[in-house]
Amino acid sequence: MDIDLNSDDQHFQKSVRQFLSDNSYVAGSDYNEWRLNWFRLARDQGGWDVPKWPEKFGGPGWTPTQHYIWEQETARAQTPWDLPFGLSMLAPVLMNYGSEEQQQRFLPDIRDRKVNWCQGYSEPNAGSDLANLKTKAELSADGSHYVVNGTKIWTTLAHIADWIFCLTRTDDSGKKQDGITFLLIPMKQAGIEVKPIITLGGAHSVNMVHLTDVKVPVENRVGEEGKAWTYAKGLLAHERTGLAGISRSLVALEKLRKQAGSVTRGNGSLLDDPSYRLKVAELEVELMATEFTELRSLASAAAGAEPGPESSILKLKGTEIQQRLQKLTVEAGGIYSAAWGATPVGHTFAHGGMSGYLASRAYTIYGGASEVQRDVIAKNVLGLKK
Amino acid sequence: MNFDLSPEQQLLSDSVERFISDQYPLDQRQLTVLSEQGFSSEHWQTMAELGWLGASIPEQYQGFGGTQADTMVLMEQLGKGLVLEPFFASAVLAASALKYGGNEAQQSQWLPQIADGSKQLSLAYAEQQGRFDLHDVLTRAEAGDQGFVLNGRKSMVLHAASADALIVSARTAGAQTEKSGIELFVVDTQADGITIHDFPTVDGLRAAEIEFTNVVVATENKLACPDGGFSVLNRVAIDGILALAAEAVGAMEVLYKDTVAYTQEREQFDRPLSDFQVLQHRMVDMFMEYEQCKSMLYRATLEVVQQGDAAQRTVHALKYLIGKNGIFIGENAVQLHGGMGMTEELRVAHYFKRLLVIDAQFGNHDYHLAQFAG
What residues of chain B lie within 8 A of the CB of A284, using their CB? Predict the structure, then answer.
């Protein structure tokens, strides 16, 4: 047993730090230019622009420990914004199940951050029970295209997306997990209507997407007709590292301490209030334990073993920690957390604290609600029947 | 970075596991609890012969020179067996006190005897008014012609009645809660002026309240402790907490797995209890809290092996977490076993009681959270 990085990993850590500090954003310069240039430079490092892609598709082929180091270092550095939909959600499906032609057509634009994708999975009656989806795709008589009709919901950034990858139903005669088909559909066309959903934090990031008689050429189908449930499930198995967001939470905890320390209370600060201080302490302990749960999971992955039972708890623990951080920020803001306008009032950190907290309530809902995660652990780890 | 046991540790773990499954059935244990000594001399001998008592004792004193990580491996397995023998008191607490505080003469006198089981020691550190503070000490040691004279009272001393000697914290100087002025003394339990009030604890083990009235201790039996007795005591407490946490993790594993097994067997409303989602989710929570404790145990143990008492803060975090989660898992194991969980017949009750005691030893979860928060 040991917790040290070996010399290769130490060397890697050094070069990541160097890269990040050499290429941080200079205030006042053109952000967009810096962003795209950052990805180009990361690419020149040997696929650092697509850390999780396999080597075959231009990824860096890192070990699990290197991924962990990358997460740790990027959490502390300023890196350009990025979206997961094309890069981490669609790309693995294309790599595993798409045709070579589809790979060549879509992957380069995803990698260059040129095309924005959104994910068309959930429907009004298919949330946690995703296989219940009803959006219908009917093959035309000549077999050249599908005609798609239905409604997708909670579609993040559909309003800026160029394309949507969709789970559709091509057959409803069998088990509901069968008969699901994976289609790639351009967003900017008649028949697709995007309606904003304003969430409780006041933000517009998710949408309802109506598809009415949308024609999709068969060459936009990924894999075989009716087999997409397996593809979507396979994707979940890919999300091994970084699930718990531990590195980012550690940084957020430091920030929370500074913020709470700036709130005066009597002669001291909020951190001198025993009940608040103990809540921060409890959270830190949970974070320390989860950090090692993640390391245990990484170490077994690095040894080439199947993820152990400990890895199943990372999403649950990680998202709960993120929510508690947000909640303590709102508590630290006190009455100023109520201010909702564009101008900060009172403590500057309180501005945006409440909307961050409200948005964080989704963390334990999306990507498999915590209750569904518990069902999965009960079944797959504890061996209990549904 | 790796969390695998070394081949030696794996052997050690397997051998303790085998001992527990062959030699430690619950009904036998419960008979031993009722015996006069409260543990089995035969098992004690076995533990000596297999080298467990000397696991953390340096090789030059007939031990195996292991680290806290080796003790962790041992204690985790012992925790699965709810062992009664004074391994923790003698081979962990007393051995650590001698390792950190003893001079060469003192170490060579005592450590080989702890390793071969011929002497059983314990640590008398707690006092009623001090609650969990190691430095709150009223017991006094006055220097006199023949050495030191001890007067005072020590509390909840593990297995004191069967011990040959005790390592006692006492003040040679300073006020009640000062960290300086505390020294450690090795005191023969047969010495004049010692009164031992022996009693059982709820987990089936033994402890004692001890009065010291003008007990004479030779100068050579004051542990050298070049940095003072308190810093030694503190390091002993760190080793003690790591060992208890490992034992607790072993006990928690038994509890969550027994609960999973029981709910699959027990039928109500025409189906196994384990079919009910509310019970499934409770068991998932028990499993998760167990895994978190195990992670924190690894973290604290490896940090202490590397950094010594500089890892103190992580040790506070560990003791808080295993105290809190141990009780959570214990209470829910009883709850999910229903009426049967309330009986002495099933082993869950016994593991639960052990976890309750572990929470209170060397400071409970509230105490350590407050220490951690600073």
Answer: 317, 372
CB A286 within 8 A of CB A325: no
Closest residue to B321, CB basis, from A285, A303, A317: A285
Q: Does the reported pTM lie above 0.90? A: yes
ipTM: 0.95
Domains of chain B: 7-118 (1.10.540.10), 122-227 (2.40.110.10), 230-373 (1.20.140.10)
- DSSP code, position A88: I
Chain A positions touching B1 (Cβ under 8 A) are 2-6, 9, 65, 295, 298-299, 302
Kindly determine whether residue A383 and residue B372, on different chains, have CB atoms separated by under 8 Å.
no
Q: Quick check: B317 and A285 CB within 8 A? A: yes
Task: Report the pLDDT averaged over residues B167-187.
Answer: 98
pLDDT in tens, B280-319: 999 999 999 999 999 999 999 999 999 999 999 999 999 9
- Domain topology for A244-380: Butyryl-CoA Dehydrogenase, subunit A; domain 3 (1.20.140)
**B317 in contact with chain A, both atoms CB, cutoff 8 A:** yes
Contact B148, B195 (CB under 8 A): no
Question: Any chain A CB within 8 A of the CB of B224?
Answer: no
Give the Å distances, CA to CA, from B194 to A203, A367, B118, B155, B172.
Answer: 73, 65, 22, 13, 19
> Which of A69, A72, A241, A288 to mutate: most B Cβ within 10 Å?
A288
Q: Does the beta carbon of B249 lie under 8 angstroms from any beta carbon of chain A?
A: no
Please count the residues of chain A. 386
Domain locations in chain A as residue ranges: 7-82, 117-227, 244-380
The pLDDT assigned to A357 comes to 96
Answer positive or negative: Cα dihedral of B98, B100, B104, B108: positive
| Residue-averaged pLDDT of chain A | 93
Tens of pLDDT, residue by residue over A329-383, are: 999 999 999 999 889 999 999 999 999 999 999 999 887 889 988 998 999 899 9
Distance CA B323, CA B315 (A): 12
Instruction: Give the position of tokens 């031990």.
Output: B63
Domains A117-227 and A244-380 share a fold: no
Q: Determine the CATH number of domain A117-227.
A: 2.40.110.10
The predicted model gives A132-139 an average pLDDT of 97
CB contact under 8 A, A277 and B373: yes
